[in-house]
Amino acid sequence: MGITDTACALLPVDEVVGAVDGFLAASPAARAWDVETAFEWGRADAGLLTEGQRSAVQFITLIEDHLPGYFDVYHRYFPVDDTVDPSTFVHNRELYHFTVRWALEEDTHARALARYQEAAGMAERGALRTELAVEGQRPFDLPYDHPVQFFAYALVQEKATQMYYQHLRDVSGDPVLGAVLSHLARDEARHFSFMADVVGRYLRTHGDAVVDPIRDVVAHFRMPLADTMRGYWRWALKIADVADYDHTEAYEHLVKVIDRAVDTRTDRVDELVRFIDQCRKVA
Ligand SMILES: [Fe+2]
Ligand SMILES: [Fe+2]
After folding, report:
1. What is the pLDDT of residues 55-68, one digit of tens each?
2. Could you give the number of structural domains in the chain?
3. Distance, CA 109 to ligand 1 centroid (Å)?
């Protein structure tokens, strides 16, 4: 079932507009960056990295490079065409202002990491392109049925990614990689803020009705590509000497979003928060 069947479960359009305006106001063109001019590529040197750090760069390049798959999820679940009723279209069209900007930024992340690999002597461009295509062609889906779930999922994933990039930057032996990761982490932090804003608006406008859908996201959470990438778990273990790629670290931020959104916790919200806390590895 698509979420087109649940138009009443969507956020009122003014709420979407508020979140999108906030995101775009926090993302002025003057503060944007590009792969071509933001870094001193001539100084990039993978010889300054440990084996684990190089492996981590390969891993995150694959994850970021899957953008077409992630972007497509929005088109499928928030269509901007004649398959939806006019009011759903208006909602989806407003959301689209976020989605295209977000996608441009994520695509830039993929290019920056691939460029780093090439400039630092980790990979030859043609070989890397061929290698990325193997995972790139695999399907990606978030088979959710309530719209809030896409934002709750992305909230956790963007925050986990931001934290991982910060950990990796802090230990990176190559300052050029450090600079790349700083830029990426800052973008992920803004993406997280948008998702947090949207999830907060869902909680304020729909209350207890979104509690079970959010709980469902936490209960079945997997980082992107965890179920499809060859050797994902072996790889995640291998790069753990750098920093754990652990989404449960992001759960405390989800709890904060819930607490900010609701003045007084209902029993169901209270139960949700207890459940999320239990899912955190580090108590
Ligand atoms: Fe990214
Ligand atoms: Fe992001």
Report:
1. 999 999 999 999 99
2. 1
3. 5
